[in-house]
């Protein structure tokens, strides 16, 4: 029986909002620690401490969720995030950031599998799935806006030395979300029957799944190039101050929120592949405009400040649209396992992207940033076309 998602939408949205804030504070931390003479090489690998635990924990998280239930697992993840957010303001050493992001990454893997599982277990139609996932994932973009605007204001004020105390508000929000989750009933899927996770993965060894995971990898690869590194590009190449650099990402997140919200409301009128390809075409058009301005007008044109955020309008729907199309074809009993694969390849895309970006920034090749992003988008476009050409209605 279909659960009325209106009763659980708020805690699901708040969950994604919280994880968005703790994951996407990476751009802020890179900006702050770079001023403390931490090298870009070290900061680039800091991203891996967040992403690799996400990949490693994901498969094992499925077994934990099967034993405890989706709601209890989600509450456990949020409890740990709240506790870690309370600790961060009081510890100064760099190694703690690595440990902090590793714990946050593991909790995110657990939380994302739970949220996707709750949605899939109660919705079967792929367009309804796309609508719901865009609405829930839109709150992820609000988290990026809140963390960059809030912390941006804090670090530009006379209280800038206390910027880390902003994480205490995330801890409070985690407590509120845990309370809301504890008050609702959630329909649980039947766990897999006494089979190892790895033996169950054999059902997903098909060309369509492999291409789908490749598409997921490169979508996050491209997104990461914006979310964590755009503030540093604005500050170091376009010569704006730290506050405005962070607001660039805030505007990117607002356009991304608009993109996912609009998609949620109009997606039923279009085919998912057609909508996806249209968004990709528009991304390429904006990036070609940016590259044209950079190479034929001015390398550090301030017009770039306003064009980059527009990309979020078309980039943000790609991830929920492609995921909902594939998840709708997966048996409810196996959705947690399949979601773990999505989380793994998403985290790998994020980690690899950040390492490459660290090299780009470390070697002072910032003038190639837009061209590099354009090349990645064209590669993603090619893989997506192949995926849509061979994918079937069922895995």
Mean pLDDT: 81
Question: C-alpha Rg, in Å?
Answer: 20 Å
The percentage of residues in β strands lies in: under 5%
Order of helices and strands: HHHHHHHHHHHHHHHH
Task: Assign an overall shape.
Answer: globular
Helix content: over 70%
| Number of discrete helical segments | 16
Protein described:
This protein has helices at residues 9-23, 26-34, 40-68, 70-87, 94-120, 126-155, 167-182, 197-200, 207-227, 230-236, 242-266, 272-296, 304-315, 318-327, 335-362, 369-390. Helix content is 75%, strand content 0%. 51% of the residues are buried. Helix 9 runs antiparallel to helix 14 and helix 11 runs parallel beside helix 13 (304-315). The protein is globular and about 55 Å long. It is mostly helical. It contains 16 helices and no strands.
Short descriptors:
395 residues; mainly alpha
In short:
With 395 residues, the chain is an all-alpha fold. Helices cover 75% and strands 0% of the residues. The model has no long low-confidence stretch (mean pLDDT 81).
Describe how the helices and strands are arranged.
Blueprint: H1 9-23, H2 26-34, H3 40-68, H4 70-87, H5 94-120, H6 126-155, H7 167-182, H8 197-200, H9 207-227, H10 230-236, H11 242-266, H12 272-296, H13 304-315, H14 318-327, H15 335-362, H16 369-390
